[in-house]
Specification:
heterodimer, A: mainly alpha, Arp2/3 complex 21 kDa subunit ARPC3, B: alpha+beta, Thrombin, subunit H, six-stranded antiparallel beta barrel, 2 helices
């Protein structure tokens, strides 16, 4: 039952990315809801859950994206796993930590996607893509993730230790 | 005696009338309030319904235009509805509600009644992914309608559309209409792509290039047509004039 719920959540996130991201876009910068979801699961649970949710949501995203299958799956899986790993390296996951880690992961994922999507970009186009798309998007992702994380703690402070399936961390 | 009583009676009756009137008008308004609430709800419901019908009407008009174009254009097309956009941030893409079950294949051209939209790049059983013309991974051949000079049309990472490799002496002007040249397998000749917005040629460049304003507003599309087959254009050089054909 929990697995079905998790898969439904992953599907819902991809559907939200396809339909709602236009509403959430700021100056044509779209948030990567799948990355945010994978990171948040990592922050709120552990690296294993982050990895699994990241792989699942990435796979669903790949099915509806023009690029080859596997890229988003690997990137989101890695992001979820690394986000989860930070919960072991810091004593308490704070909103500030969420901002920094999501920013770094978003930059990494964005850069990898950029290289795969446009392998033949020249210098000026690459500079434009990094400065006008990659950086603002990473910042947007980080702020959105931090906002959701903060709200989650406000609404239910114990959420961070009551995990999706496997009890307490 | 009666006259003595008449004054106070009139007074009391007047007071009774005014109190009753005040009561009915200003205090006993429960019924009116309830009716008001009911009417407000009804108005909201009707406004919602009106909005829904207006939305349906707009959609129906757009699909009617597509349907009319589909009936008159010398192409075999399948209409599809757009159900998602930009699932990945690095591609200018649409998700449509037709897939392999409807006969859609990768590399098919996608158009509207206005002109070219893009190309199908991935097909799932019930959905397909369309890369827009403004994506750098899409390139088609096009030509200036008036001068018939051909070039390659490709998107940029900024979401613009460029026309490259135009002959250096081609008389290209701002506002010239750009159409498909029919040299690729996915689009027939003569479909409108857009207008030339800017022409650039540096002194050291071998070719001219131009920036194109697309004829279709990609951000407002609701429905598209996928080209499944068309009659390829026969070039004038390869076929003899009609009057010289031998009479059977």
């Amino acid at each position: 039952m929990i697995i079905v719920l998790q898969i439904a959540l992953c599907l819902g996130t991809v559907v939200a990315q396809a339909t709602l991201s236009a509403w959430l876009s700021v100056n044509n910068i779209y948030p990567d809801l799948c990355l945010i979801f994978a990171c948040l699961v990592g922050f709120l649970t552990n690296e294993y859950k982050g990895l699994m949710i990241g792989l699942t949501v990435g796979l669903f995203q790949d099915l509806l994206a023009p690029g080859g299958i596997g890229l988003n799956m690997i990137l989101k899986g890695l992001a979820g796993c690394l986000a989860g790993a930070t919960t072991h390296t810091v004593s308490t996951v704070t909103t500030g930590a969420v901002v920094i880690v999501t920013l770094v992961l978003s930059l990494g994922c964005g850069l990898a996607s950029l290289i795969v999507a446009y392998p033949f970009l020249d210098g000026s186009d690459a500079f434009h893509a990094i400065s006008w798309v990659l950086l603002p998007q990473a910042l947007y992702n980080a702020l959105l993730a931090a906002g959701i994380f903060w709200l989650t703690h406000k609404v239910r402070p114990s959420f961070a230790v009551v995990h999706f399936a496997q009890g307490r961390r | 005696m009666a006259m003595i009583l008449e004054g106070p009676l009139h007074g009391v009756a007047a007071i009774q009338d005014s109190v009753g009137e005040t009561w009915n008008r200003y205090i006993a308004l429960q019924q009116v309030w309830e009716e008001n609430q009911r009417l407000k709800q009804e108005i909201q419901q009707l406004q919602g319904e009106q909005n829904r019908l207006r939305e349906q009407s707009i959609l129906a008009m757009e699909f009617q235009a597509l349907s009319m174009y589909q009936a008159t254009a010398p192409l075999t097309t399948i209409p599809a509805r757009i159900i998602g956009r930009n699932v990945s941030n690095w591609y200018q893409a649409l998700v449509i509600n037709k897939g392999t079950r409807d006969g859609i294949k990768a590399e098919m051209g996608v158009i509207t009644n206005a002109g070219v939209v893009g190309r199908v790049v991935r097909v799932n059983p019930i959905t397909s992914i369309v890369l827009l013309l403004s994506d750098p991974n899409v390139a088609i051949t096009g030509m200036i309608q008036t001068s018939r000079d051909e070039g390659i049309i490709q998107g940029t990472p900024q979401g613009n559309i460029h026309m490259k490799y135009l002959p250096p002496l081609s008389p290209v002007h701002v506002g010239d209409v750009v159409v498909t040249s029919g040299l690729t397998d996915d689009f027939p000749r003569g479909l409108q792509i857009g207008h030339i917005q800017q022409v650039t040629k540096a002194a050291t460049d071998l070719f001219q290039s131009g920036e194109i304003t697309p004829i279709a507003d990609f951000s407002k599309l609701e429905g598209v047509l996928i080209i499944t087959s068309f009659q390829p254009a026969v070039s004038a050089e390869s076929s003899p004039p009609a009057e010289t054909l031998p009479v059977p």
